Amino acid sequence: MLQMEKKWWHNKVAYQIYPKSFHDTNGDGIGDIRGIIEKLDYLKDLGIDIVWISPIYQSPFVDQGYDISDYYRIAPEFGTMEDFDELLAEAKKRDISIVMDLVINHCSDKHQWFQKALEDPEGEYGDYFYFVKGKNGEPPSNYRSYFGGSTWEPVEGTDLYYLHMFAKEQPDLNWNNQKMKEELFTMIRWWLEKGVAGFRVDAIINIKKDLNFPDFEPDGPDGLASCTRMVDEVEGIGELLEELKDKAFDPYDAFTVAEVFNMKEDELREFIGDKGHFSTMFDFSAHLLTKGEHGWYDAKPMDFNLWKQTVIESQLSVQKAGFLANIIENHDEPRGASTYLPEHAVCPSGIKMLGTVSVLLRGLPFLYQGQEIGMRNCPMDSIEEYDDINTKDQYEIALEAGYTEEESLKVCFNYSRDNARTPMQWNDSNHGGFSQGTPWLKVNPNYKEINVEAQQQDEDSVFHFYKDLIALRKSEMYQEIFTYGEFIPVFQQEEGIFAYYRKEEDGKCILIAANFGEKERKLNLELTVKQVLLTNNEKIGEKVLASVNSAGDQLTLDSCGVLVAEMNMVS
Is 259 tagged catalytic? Predict the structure, then answer.
């Protein structure tokens, strides 16, 4: 087993807030910082230690705040810097650490740097970005942006194009320019001085560019190739990340969780080992299974066996290197309950089962707002009800592929990022208790049945189960094993079963076993049960307890049943 240097954040549980949709206190239909302050006691009661807040910087909101026009200002939609300072102070009273979103691959085209660059692309600020001459009246290369269309936008009145790997309103920053980098490092240190505990680092793998911008073989009917091809093949990202760490993060012992795609297989330890570029990074291996070859429209339904094996392989590979941040949903993904559960399991028992399997994995658990009450994908009546630019692009791609409007809308229901961005469902009052005004995005119609207030009053709810699950993970008796214990898969050949041990060397052993299938399953245990720690079905616990101390325990799991049990180390 890997011997890890222990860090302050290792045994914590984190929670992502999408502020625009969390809680609105002034009735403008947009969540705000004061709304987060009001819900800190709720988060503390749930058992949360770290809160990551999606971008609240000044922004035109072309891409929901991931297009920052001023890194030092709070967007007025969310409140003031005084509100933020109060949030830091109130969170500190509750031993909750605040983590900001850090978006430094690109900025907004409204940022003063880019405005000055447009005035003089050959000047000082022009070199803060990538201005490149076209080829024979065409863009410099044939890259497709993450949001569709060319990554190159022409500069009016010139033969130049600027690079944007996301929306055209999000020009990429030139990490070859030392002065620009130092300005970013100064900004990061300013926030850490203010008291934030660290950052979720957005799209950071994209900062390294091949300055030759070579063309690639087209991979779609638009004649373009995904910009990830260049990211995959360019070398030298590590030097930039080490500079970022040394000059900005390390002096403050900042916690950093990176959004990393396209990392090379042998770089895991470099990224998240004891001396890695980041504290941790999100495990997107399961999410990648939802991708289609050409778009959302040809994505395959989730295959349980493939999903299980993907999670297992990720867990086995990372425990030799460091810690991953484990998720089943975030602001860029549809709801986990609607994605990873078979249809028969999209119910409270199934949602508790999925939560257990995820939260007790080795790594740092990240919950996303609403996950703790089992929020689900939101049906929309038309494409106009969606806000997300990526969703609108994928809708058009589906139409172009020959899908009907109804079929294309169903594709969006399955995969849209807006599924996670619908307002938080606090109670069964108007707009789910999110706002007294008109919410910026439709509230899921199921808020009458699925909401925080109702679940707080129901001891058998998903919310109370998550509280118990988090409390178990953080308990004095079991915190060490759930933090550092080895992950060992078991019953891998059993159909519909996802099970694993968390095991200490010469110490405790805990079994987590879940039945994702439709029928009851009986499992012959290799170790006997010492103590049942958690189950979503009391019948399962009663059956196991009845067999304790018998020769060769047999575990019976109902459909959607999950059991967490401490095992006797001698069979």
Answer: yes
Cβ atoms 13, 49 nearer than 8 A: yes
Structure pTM? 0.95
- What whole-number distance in Å separates Cα of residue 423 and Cα of residue 450? 12
3-state secondary structure 94-145: CCCEEEEEECCCECCCCCHHHHHHHHCCCCCHHHHECEEECECCECCCCEEC
> Is 544 in contact with 563 (CB distance < 8 Å)?
yes
Residue 355, SS3 per DSSP: helix
202 part of the active site? yes
- pLDDT digit string, tens, across residues 122-133: 999 999 999 999
- Write out pLDDT tens, residues 143-155: 999 998 999 999 9
237, burial (CB in 10 Å: exposed 0-12, middle 13-18, buried 19+): buried
Nearest CA-CA partner of 63 in 425, 332, 287, 423: 332
Query: How does residue 170 score in pLDDT terms, banded at 50, 70 and 90?
Result: very high
Render pLDDT for 355-388 as a digit per residue (tens, 0 to 9): 999 999 999 999 999 999 999 999 999 999 999 9
State the Cα–Cα distance between residues 463 and 64, nearest whole angstrom. 28
Q: Is pLDDT of 569 > 50?
A: yes
Instruction: State the Cα–Cα distance between residues 487 and 510, nearest whole angstrom.
Output: 10
Considering 259, 283, 372, 468, which one is annotated as catalytic?
259
Q: What are phi and psi of 258, to 5 degrees?
A: -100, 145
Q: Could you read off the pLDDT of 43-71 as tens digits, one per residue?
A: 999 999 999 999 999 999 999 999 999 99
**What 3-state DSSP class applies to 162?**
strand
Are residues 481 and 504 in contact, defined by beta-carbon separation less than 8 angstroms?
A: yes
Answer yes or no: is pLDDT of 18 > 60.
yes
Instruction: Give buried/exposed letters for 316-354 (b at 16+ CB in 10 A, else e).
Output: eebbebbbbbbbbbbbbbbbbbbbbbbeebbbbbbbbbb
Q: How many CB atoms lie within 10 A of CB 125?
A: 20
Taken in order of first residue, the domains within the chain and their CATH numbers are 14-106+178-371 (3.20.20.80), 112-163 (3.90.400.10), 485-567 (2.60.40.1180)
3-state class (DSSP) for residue 172: strand
Answer whether 79's CB lies under 8 Å from 35's CB: no
Please identify which of the residues 83, 109, 153, 202 carries the catalytic annotation.
202
Measure the N-to-C terminal CA separation of the chain; round to a whole number of Å.
23
Question: Is beta strand 324-326 parallel, antiparallel or unpaired with respect to 280-282?
Answer: parallel
Whose CA is closest to 485, among 505, 470, 468?
A: 505
Give me the chain's average pLDDT, please: 95
DSSP for residue 248: I
Closest CA relative to residue 516, chosen from 287, 304, 336, 213: 304
